[in-house]
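Quarterly update from the structural biology core.
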Amino acid sequence: MEYVKKYKLQIILPVLLAVVVLVATAMSNLFSDNSSSDYQCSLGRKYLNDLDYSGAILAYSNAIALDPTNTEARIGLAKAYSGKNEPDFAVQILTESLNEKKMNPDIAEALMELYTERGDWGSVISILDILLDQTDDEDYHEMLADVIANMYARPHPISMGSAHELMLKDGTVMSRGQNVLGQLGITDGLGDRYFSTDTFAPAGFSGVAERVFCAGNTSYVIDDTGKLWAAGENRWGQIGNSYGLLSTASGWFDVAGGENTVYVCGDTGTAYVLKKDGTLYHSGAYSGQVLSVCTGLPTISRISASEGYVYALGTNGVLYRNESRTPDSWQRLTSAAVRVTDYAACGSVYAWVDSDGRYMSMGTYYPGNWEYTNGGYLIPDTRIASLETNGNMLIYTDLNGVLYTADGSDPQKIEMDSTLVNLYSDAGNVYAVYESGTALVWKKYETQYSIAAEPANG
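Predicted structure, tokenized:
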């Protein structure tokens, strides 16, 4: 009998335990509501912390299905897709709920974070400009200044002038080419139009250089304090120190008013200088021979010059252009209804992408597989982060940092064993700089790139 009782207990106890578990589970579901949007968000957070992006996508998608207004779920879903290296989906998830007339700051800041991580600085600036219009919050002013500073902190170690080149190698400014006007920064060949060097040699710059630029026959260096220095031609005052250097001279000259400079461009006889507060200055032919503010422009985030034209992109998303010798006659190329996030230009031809990811070509090439929309726009097959053109090629990056080229046919991917850290242009030449220090160069109107003479490190 004792054996029978013991056997019955062995059967009954597990059954009772199972009933207790079932009741407890039912009560837990009753009070915690596992099917709620908030519960699915909690699952999504756990999956994100565990880097289980597929699980996070499922949980956050369930949360949005249960509550389409759940901001946390939408942001979490975007982070999950970004973690899976699918940033195009992440952007779409956030932008489809973004109301430009009354922007949700949480959605906006999540989108800015995504764009920042992916190198789409123009889209970050566009969102900040909208937030500033709506709130005039001082924090957003500071964020805008930081974004522009970070955008120009990227390596800019090589540049080509009319007949000379500069390269930044391990912090030393190197130069090669002609030196008839002192543009190499040294005395060798000064005034001798037949003198030319084929190899890079130290250019005699004694400061700590961060970025180098060429404009015509003039060389420029921005040092580690943001101060601007120049060498070479000054026959029109493009060094910004009036006509004090009519004769050829060697060495580097401290440009008056050149503090807080982030970018320089120009042509023979002209120089355009962008300051970190977004103010654009000009010096040279058909204007004053010292740096003077360009009038008629808003805050500027990007400039470029080639073949007598200068382009300026405002933080308001409007693209402007003038002829380089008419610094205060700016033509508006886009309407206020279109927010341009980046552009490519070579001479009189140009293109741009806007905050909706659309592409507009004004005489430039583009991939043949992109689709047209109403209004003449094209829809790229990937979200474009940055773009340049050398007149014959469109060169652009996507949100994954992949570099592509196109000359009217399908886009071609450029494969390198290093991470792309900057894509920029000057005077129609385009440069792609990699973390390894290698720089690819597409010279104006050429279809093939070359590799810089030696690795350049900014």
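The two ends are 90 Å apart (CA to CA).
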